[in-house]
Amino acid sequence: MTLTQTPVEISESRPPLSRGALATRVLGLALLAALAVWILYSAVTKPTQFASAVVTGINNGALYALIALGYTLVYGIIELINFSHGDLFMLATIVAAFVIVTVFGVTSLSWWAAVVLLIGLVVTMSFAAGLNVAAERLAYRRLRRAPKLAPLITAVGLSFVYQFVGVTANGSAQKPWDTILGDTGFYIGDVKINWKTIVVIAVTVPLLLAMTWMVANTRQGKAMRATAQDQDAARLMGIDVDRTIAFTFGLGGALAGAAGVLFMQANGLTRWDAGFRLGLIAFTAAVLGGIGNLTGAVLGGFLIGVIENLNNSLGFGQEWGQTVIFTILIVLMVFKPEGILGKPTTEKV
Amino acid sequence: MATSAKEGTRSTMARRMTSLPVLFTVLAVLIFVFYQFVLGRLVQPVQDFFGGWFPLTAVNQCIIWATLAVGLNIVVGYAGLLDLGYVAFWAIGGYVAAWIMSPFFTQWQINIFGTAPPGLEAGIHVNFWLVLPIGAAFCALWGVIIGAPTLRLKSDYLALVTLGFGEIIPEVFRNAGDINGFNLSNGTKGIDPLDPIPTGPFHLLGVPSTLGPFDNTYKFLVYGLLCAFAIFVSLRIRVGRLGRAWLAIREDELAASMMGVPLMRTKLAAYAVGAALGGIGGVAYATLTNGVSPDSFQFANSIILLAMVVLGGMGNVWGVLVGALILEWINSTGLAQFGSTFNNTFGTSVEFSSYNFLIFGSLLIIMMLFRREGLLPEARTRQVLQEPERGEIEAVGADLEGSTV
Fold this sequence. Notes:
The structure holds 2 protein chains of 2 kinds.
Chain A: H1 7-11, H2 19-45, H3 47-78, H4 85-103, H5 111-140, H6 149-170, E1 175-176, E2 185-188, E3 191-194, H7 195-217, H8 219-229, H9 231-236, H10 241-267, E4 269-270, H11 274-289, H12 294-314, H13 321-335
Antiparallel strand pairs in A: 1-4, 2-3
Helix pairs in contact in A: 2-3, 3-7, 3-10, 3-11, 3-12, 4-5, 4-6, 4-10, 4-11, 5-10, 7-8, 7-10, 8-10, 11-12, 11-13
Chain B: H1 2-38, H2 44-53, H3 56-78, H4 87-100, E1 101-102, E2 109-112, E3 123-126, H5 128-150, H6 155-175, E4 197-198, E5 210-211, H7 216-239, H8 241-251, H9 253-258, H10 263-289, H11 299-312, H12 317-346, H13 356-370, H14 379-386, H15 392-402
Parallel strand pairs in B: 2-3
Antiparallel strand pairs in B: 1-3, 4-5
Helix pairs in contact in B: 1-7, 3-7, 3-10, 3-11, 3-12, 4-5, 4-6, 4-10, 5-10, 7-8, 7-10, 8-10, 11-12, 11-13
């Protein structure tokens, strides 16, 4: 499932590999093999820790996947790295906390809590979608024909504005919140699985399936794919390009909103700088899976989540978390910029 | 007509190239003279005004930020490569200074024309004026290391890789307090104090022989000199072969490579020169704050530097300089002073300095939407806009390019 697919790359035949490219490929494969050996080794020597790291990793990975989809959708359609997306997610966590805890006062489990969680999801998703559409309408649309640097810098500026709103609303320290499920869970062997992880998966997977179905099967999805391929041709075919792009922003925003609710409920805190870190991790996930590729973003999200948590408990430790993730990003850019599922493009001059 | 216009611009450019850094130096010296000799003799209210609104530490900070912004301008403004992790070079430069001109590495005792304060002779002490080129070279090396594998990527990927690099470097310094027992960076505590700046022969003229943390007026002269050097370097390279190659790449990469510009080498050069200036700024900043700490190298600094370049006018050194001075002044003193004056006058208690994120963010957005070329756009951009002889088809094409759909 991919948004970007130019006809050029289909007709192109593969040139034979040069010696340099071959060396790069061998080195890349060697790095990958080393990583695999390390993961296998730790799985065999410390199975319990490994399993709980994987469970936490899947929990976080679901959130990364939701955010990564926002990046990949927008990149797929207008080739913009929407830098403010992580901070949109951060605002969503604050809105979620406001709706669920401050307005409804729900801090423990009951049937009413499930209803409120659903309300919180709907409100937060519409808020984030609306905000993202507004940003597109007010800023990015005007810059669609500008040099590429312009929308990117605008996105950076927007992320600063969002962070300002976050600091004003949430304070400069992180705020703890009571969550519906707390730390309750059940055990499989020695591995604890939190109920909140189950909820995160239960919300994420249907959302991902619904979105994939929508892009693949509906008229709107077809319009999105057409716009991603060629805006002018899509316009000639009677597609409202502006509306389609706005819709894509809305969709990405809604997914970030859902991620915001889940993050707030899973971690029980909101902080103004959460968006920066998670946004970058999610972007790495999107690149890992192949940017512009929806399945790839989900896969990348889960992979990054698992790798991050393996590093936290078995690798270098949490204080090196960012270094590990960004090293992955840089190594990936060097060896395989198109990602796991992406197709190499001819544009990398 | 066309040729004479061209020659005209070339000669004005050449004149500008030498005259403007000189002008800048003269201005810096005048400001120095004002603070050193004049200000103390003025009446108290005037002294208070300058002490509140233009304290020398803030002026020094402004001038170092300006040096860094001029360095970033080479990467972003000249070569058109978006660098979101410039703070990494700043950090590397700062730590190089902290390593080789402080008593930090007590296990070694090396002194190369150093100015170790009495009692702190252990560690590596290298003369400040030697540390500058060492820091610059070290940063340039890192610029090449990070640039070589990533510069063939598309611009927006490059932005993200540089951003990742800018996040990794401070984290490395934060965590490298104990690498198998070896203390590389002293962890979150950072490294201080640094050696004072030696003045060499000038102490015969009455200047103190070393400039410690409190000799702000003389230090201003040192930093002003470094900034003038950065300006001179960027103007000088700008008109040369390399500078024209950068502009060509910025405007059309494909066309530039068809004309025989070696893309990788040219981009790497931009990266290395930008990084070297960042290193110089880093060394200077470390001596200003008399120490380094990993928490001062935030991502926000990269963005503020970018805002300076964008506000002033990408590619135009003078625009960037003005942008940097204004923004850093607002950031360090202007906003806080304005806030306290406002609150005193109207009896309010608005926390103005908390608004700087909003100010910088909206500044970037508004500039991109309404005045993409910056406050003082580069002459070249203006020239292109005012170009009289343009083919009809070209004009139509340009109009189409500019229109929003």
